[in-house]
Amino acid sequence: MIYSFAAADLRKQEFITMLDQLGIDYELSEHNHTVVRVLGRITPEVREQLHNRGFDHASLTLQRPGERGCYDLLCDRSRLNVIAGPCAVEDEAQLAAVAEFLHRCDVRFLRGGAYKPRTQVDSFQGLGVNGLKLLRAQADRFGMFVVTEVMDRSQIDTVAEYADVLQVGSRNMFNYTLLTALGSINKPILLKRGMAATIREWLAAAEYISRGGNNAIILCERGVRTFEPEIAHTLDLAAIILAQQQSSYPVIADASHAAGRADLVAPLALAAVAAGADGIMIEVHPEPATALSDARQALTLAQFAALLERAQALFQNRRAQ
Ligand code: PEP
Ligand code: MN
Fold first, then answer.
1. pLDDT 10s digits, 33-90
2. Which residue out of 120, 159, 170 has the highest number of ligand 1 atoms within 8 Å of its CB and is therefore the one to mutate?
3. pTM of the predicted model, to two decimals?
4. Which of 53, 131, 281, 310 is 20 to 30 Å from 158 at the Cα level?
5. CB distance 187 to 160 below 8 Å
């Protein structure tokens, strides 16, 4: 059970005191507002006591439009959402080159990992807060929005200080403690599909965020694990369509992590647009061969520009039909 309270809601303390008195444990997340995830058993007696004090439902503090930052832009179905940038922020020169180029292409969302979930412990782990600062600085140069991953609850305040959209990575889609905590901030959450998650599990994960009062969610299909070794993951086009049917959130496709190889990124991204995706996420690097992470799947700036032109044309064509 998740309950949420506005920062100024005095009933929050009453609720917490009551849980303490009942000996029920809970997990508290306090960012923009307060989210309480009740960890104890809600027996009929407890339910009655909550009822008698007026705590029947999670008291949702849904974000007002003005508090959701760029979310309205992401929900604008008259335009194709494009989120692009390097896998990881590596240094100022790398990010500046990408940001400047993306700005010239009219891309509004700059991505880049500052905290990287790497398979190998000795791989580059990201620049951390220094990466966040570079993202903010480069995005501000061009009036862009920052999309970056938050890997753990302990990073939420830091990431939210610099980012406009917080990304939950595929490996963390099942991290219910993190998802619950993200319900208490007033920034959009880009929720990637777990690489072995069903559509139902993906949408259920989104509910952990929305129940806390943050329904500014973007779903991102990034490919699922299959038996095929030649591609990293298999982009699930049907999942994009079904996620749109079964939720009201924008659904975008990350063609880069699905493909795992540069030559498949453009065709997969175009297939997703043709299938009706609300946007695409693409990894771009000024010099892919030197990338510190996901080098094989990064597009050059020129390859990205060519893809973007085709994706926009396809999107316009789709809208005209
Ligand atoms: C990423 O977008 O940088 C990333 C790590 O993707 P995923 O979580 O989909 O693997
Ligand atoms: Mn990557």
1. 999 999 988 889 988 888 888 887 666 667 777 778 899 999 999 999 999 999 999 9
2. 170
3. 0.96
4. 281
5. yes
